[in-house]
Amino acid sequence: MKNTERTRVAVVGASGYTGEELVRLLLRHPGAELAAITSRQFAGKSLAEIFPRLAHHATATTLRFIDVRPAQLAESAEVIFLALPHGVAVEFAGPLLEAGAKVIDLSADFRIRNAETYKEFYTHAHPAPELLPTAIYGLPEIYRDKIRDARLVACPGCYPTSILLPAIPLLRARLVESGSIIANSLSGVSGAGRKAELDYLFVECNESVRPYGVPKHRHLAEIEQELSVAAGGEVTIQFTPHLIPVNRGILTTLYFTPTATGKDPKRIDAAFRASYADEPFVRLLGEKTLPDTKNVVGSNVIEIAWRFDPRTGRLIVMSAEDNLLKGASGQAIQCFNLMCGCEETAGLI
Amino acid sequence: MKNTERTRVAVVGASGYTGEELVRLLLRHPGAELAAITSRQFAGKSLAEIFPRLAHHATATTLRFIDVRPAQLAESAEVIFLALPHGVAVEFAGPLLEAGAKVIDLSADFRIRNAETYKEFYTHAHPAPELLPTAIYGLPEIYRDKIRDARLVACPGCYPTSILLPAIPLLRARLVESGSIIANSLSGVSGAGRKAELDYLFVECNESVRPYGVPKHRHLAEIEQELSVAAGGEVTIQFTPHLIPVNRGILTTLYFTPTATGKDPKRIDAAFRASYADEPFVRLLGEKTLPDTKNVVGSNVIEIAWRFDPRTGRLIVMSAEDNLLKGASGQAIQCFNLMCGCEETAGLI
Amino acid sequence: MKNTERTRVAVVGASGYTGEELVRLLLRHPGAELAAITSRQFAGKSLAEIFPRLAHHATATTLRFIDVRPAQLAESAEVIFLALPHGVAVEFAGPLLEAGAKVIDLSADFRIRNAETYKEFYTHAHPAPELLPTAIYGLPEIYRDKIRDARLVACPGCYPTSILLPAIPLLRARLVESGSIIANSLSGVSGAGRKAELDYLFVECNESVRPYGVPKHRHLAEIEQELSVAAGGEVTIQFTPHLIPVNRGILTTLYFTPTATGKDPKRIDAAFRASYADEPFVRLLGEKTLPDTKNVVGSNVIEIAWRFDPRTGRLIVMSAEDNLLKGASGQAIQCFNLMCGCEETAGLI
Amino acid sequence: MKNTERTRVAVVGASGYTGEELVRLLLRHPGAELAAITSRQFAGKSLAEIFPRLAHHATATTLRFIDVRPAQLAESAEVIFLALPHGVAVEFAGPLLEAGAKVIDLSADFRIRNAETYKEFYTHAHPAPELLPTAIYGLPEIYRDKIRDARLVACPGCYPTSILLPAIPLLRARLVESGSIIANSLSGVSGAGRKAELDYLFVECNESVRPYGVPKHRHLAEIEQELSVAAGGEVTIQFTPHLIPVNRGILTTLYFTPTATGKDPKRIDAAFRASYADEPFVRLLGEKTLPDTKNVVGSNVIEIAWRFDPRTGRLIVMSAEDNLLKGASGQAIQCFNLMCGCEETAGLI
Predict the structure, then answer these.
(1) pTM for the whole thing?
(2) C40: pLDDT strictly greater than 70
(3) Which residues between 227 and 256 in chain B have a beta carbon less than 8 angstroms from any beta carbon of chain A?
């Protein structure tokens, strides 16, 4: 049975790139009614003033940013999206949950189940460890049923999505050595957020390619947590992010050493098909073509291709996604659809 | 007679894009010895730390940014380049001149001869109007001899250079109506300087084209001043700058109504040839080809092409330059060469 | 009354950028059923193979390019979109119309009412002048009613749309001198089509800005035709297109000399409001903000802003559009909606 | 002792990106006189016509492309640069060498010592295997002395340079497992050459990131040949090239498993310093900063940085170079300088 009434939703911290994407998607979502958008910085301004590209929507001139307390927000919306920096989202989540709202958090605050791991990677104690057991990791292809019943969803990071979806089927089927994983990722600049920093100026990024966060990027915490679940044992991986001069898109190239059974290409193919053949947002390119970010930017699709290298015996898996959609706001809407009984693809195709 | 000794020079405020270009050019200049670079923000840091792309130069690890008073600076260098924001440069120029140094200023502080006009466009009274009569406008193709003897050179802005060099020969020869001039300019993002502002983030500039400063950009003050000199009477023009997603380059398209004599293409051609045929940094494309910023970026050259439109009777003149070179630091070096008796092209080819 | 059945449509020559956009829009259009796509080059291939970014649509693997005669095509579709080069489209249009289909042509073949003018600008005699009187110029904001009843719609070019929508209300209201118009346009590279030519290679376009087609671009024929209708007399304009390094987007800056009545800003404002206040795809920015291609790319919206320059007495009007949407395929869908009784915004918001 | 007379040189096939760079560098080289440039396609045209950006050089209007036989060419120049496609260069090299000229070849024709390996990777028998033993691999940091005496230099490919310079010192010192090497490379579009192919159109490359040539790119032949020499045994590596939207620049990220001795960071540091501390074109960033293509584009410098990952035990080494300079034409000039007794940095700083 499908939900026929629109669910009232709010977006907290709707002034960054993921917030803008959320608002854009929710404005045209058949099952959502955007009841409130909040921003301390832009309180009082209309949506049309702050995001001119959304100005032709009917509500763009009437919908205004507000700056309210979590409790008030829970009165006007049933589902609240948090598009806030990590460490800030947690302050909203508790009161909102207590007031009966469902929360879809796009920050890192609820992605890590182990408070110690959180502290190691985020350098401060988790402020609300009691909430961690209730949070569901918002990767629908992996946790679909749990997301349906969740009250608190922690949406995966952009890099983690691009690594986990290709790697999990291989680890689950024991087709690759869990200690062999190297993930080389390339991200568009919107991944850094809308921050006025010299490093992200046009002139500093254009005609530039550079690695960063080597060798211990924060996203490793959630990546390894989820890979370990899939492998049934602790997994540590190599991960190198790079900044490239595109607005959007992540291209990840993964290197694996196959196990004895993983040396059979048919099994690789079968593992991917078994996991994703019916997934609306996973496009399996197999051994035929190669991913390209321009084929996924603007959509919630992740492309996955693979090749065996007979010379080295390694398996190479490549994925492409839009970091703001499948890597953030699109995936959040996919979770929302599951939580509210909408078609999973509602508002996304 | 050519100068055989190297002139000791300093760059004040060497931390922006024009400052970096000045330093890069001076490091390889056969007639200059870079004695000092100053920056409040980077004092104590080496050149190599702040500008990694210059790190392979011999002095890059030994030359360090300092934060000194103008008087001290005049002891270590004979010629001082000021790469400072307008309003700040003027504070350095006076003491430096008094201490006997020559000053090449890249800001707007000494470009406007009339203190009232300065106030109109820069919204505050000029802090040192007594210096204005001594300043020479640093456009070598127009003021070569005066620059040779100058103690204070005011380098033209990037847009003004792209407009003045094409327009002055036409106005001087009375080939165009002085009230008919429209200048439509497109600039790369480095023209906005190295400022951490949201508007100049990669994501805000990439895949974006936009006009700004319509209709009264500050550069109009110096553009109209110099066009009026050329025309022998007051000239007011239309000028619309646009921001385009390239690092460097200005493309200006100028529209003129020709006078009766200006309707003869041979006269247009003759006027440009008479002015620029022997200029090392002006490339006359005439009616054959069209300018392209990629053909001038990285060089001190300005390209100029023109076309008559028999349908409308108008004359269209197009120019292309590197905003950081012919539009700023390259032109400053050209002035330096004149002031110090070097070959005018020294360090620039 | 709204159409409730889906109209069967076909896209001929669906292999270029406008064809791809048409297909993308039609796949998600609530009132259209994409019955056929044709391409000589790709006949036999599936949509998913040729346009990977559309591969997640349900029909992308089953819908295959075919290479058929016009008469056959008319059997499978009621409305045929022609995304062919000029000179080729005309060969399809006649037989299709004869077979009873409606034709929406995106080429230049039916835009010019006067066969002589066509010959002047396209350098060969028009092959089917008898069809010209039946063609309607597909600018819905100007010819809405005629488009509703049309059997042959000639969609405007990308530059013309960006010039005509801002200029027509001003000419109609006699607010600007019809001989004073200068249009300076900047276009993204997709405007050149998907052609394997050196000039459009990444390396030749990136970090490059250049004028082209100076001073007599083919689009002038249709621009001046429509401006003349609006002005009630022959209009000749100045038009300079430039190529800039973005995928999509046209930014046009127009310069006008106002008439005596046009000197009153309120009348300018009133003229624009009277024409466009209720238009779903025209966003009037007035004197408040300035257009930016990034705010319209991906949508069928055209932004229009204006400023008076009290210094020069001129009126500056600026527009921004997505050259592949409002400048081509989006506008074609807008016409389709009118022709088929759909909501005018169907499939476009 | 330094050469004081200029060496007469010619560039064959000077119409692509590497050819243009060679010409640009040779025009300002203090020890070279550019006697001839050849191109079948452009024969009769002046340098200024074909490469407008070089048009301000004194000889640009007088130097014209010619189409001559190798023997004739050997009369006018002592050193001939071949900037031709592989398979074509070899046809010129034999006759030129026979006629007494020295040859610096930028194609792949003489990089592979083993004719069988050549056949495996380039799919046809080597046309002149007798010349292979005389060719010296033009990597000055590795083969400086041999290059000095060479008559035929085979300049390394762009990817190989970015991989070999970081990897060779580690393999020579037995600090890394030779079977563990993974090279993930990102290249600007100029690496594909100036070819009118759809894949390299602006619209296809801009806002796109994609792997290609997976898993067996031709450059592997020379990379593994040279790594095997360094390791003293056969080395097979994993190599994945990617295309990114910049004009120039290669960023390579290398993953190694250290040997027992290689686990000591001091030894890694020592190995790099021992190899490159005095090299004018290798910038060792060590463990302090990270490479960025924008810091090397326009120069002949390669940046190398490294990090140990204590979590995985792996060593990550990253390099950045300009693919057209250190990866092609700049390195060719460096070889030329060695062969002709110039300063190794002549014309390159």
Answers:
(1) 0.97
(2) yes
(3) 245-247
Sheet holding B238-243, edge to edge: B210-211, B238-243, B182-187, B250-256, B315-321, B302-308, B282-286
Which residues of D are less than 8 Å from B205 in CB distance? none
- Give the DSSP letter string of A197-251: -GGGBHHHHTT--EE-S-S--TTHHHHHHHHHHHHTS----EEEEEE-S-SS-EE
Ordered structural domains, chain A, with CATH: 7-155+328-340 (3.40.50.720), 159-321 (3.30.360.10)
Confidence (pLDDT) at A2: 44
Take residue D56 and report the two structure tokens written for it. 């301000």
**Cα→Cα distances B42→A203, B47, B79, Å:** 20, 9, 22
Contact at CB, D202 and C197, closer than 8 angstroms: no
- Beta-carbon separation of B280 and D56 below 8 A: yes
pLDDT of residue D5: 85
pLDDT in the model for residue D4: 60
Of B214, B247, B294, the CB nearest to C307: B214
Contact A210 D249 (CB under 8 A): no
Active site (catalytic) residues of D: 158
**B293 contacts in C (CB within 8 Å)?**
207-210
What span, in angstroms and rounded, lies between the C-alpha atoms of C112 and C117? Answer: 7
Helices (H), B5-136: 17-27, 47-50, 70-76, 89-98, 115-122
Instruction: State pLDDT tens for residues A124-183.
Output: 999 999 999 999 999 999 999 999 999 999 999 999 999 999 999 999 999 999 999 999
Query: Is there a contact between A247 and B190 if contact means CB atoms under 8 Å apart?
Result: no
**How many other C-beta atoms are found inside a 10 Å radius of the C-beta of residue D116?**
11
Q: What pLDDT is stored for residue C14 in this prediction?
A: 85
Could you tell me what percent of chain B has a pLDDT over 90? Answer: 93
Question: B102 pairs with which residues across the strands?
Answer: B79
In chain B, residues with a C-beta closer than 8 Å to the C-beta of D295 are 52-53, 55
Q: What is the ipTM of this complex?
A: 0.96
Tokens of B313: 């009777």
Q: How far is CA C293 from CA A274, B244, C344, C345, in A?
A: 43, 10, 23, 20
**Distance between CA atoms of residues A289 and D199, nearest Å:** 14
Give the end-to-end CA distance of chain B in Å, rounded to a whole number. 20
B308 touches chain C (CB under 8 A): yes
Residue C3 clears pLDDT 50, i.e. is over it: no
Sign of CA dihedral B200, B203, B209, B214: negative
pLDDT over threshold 80, residue B56: yes
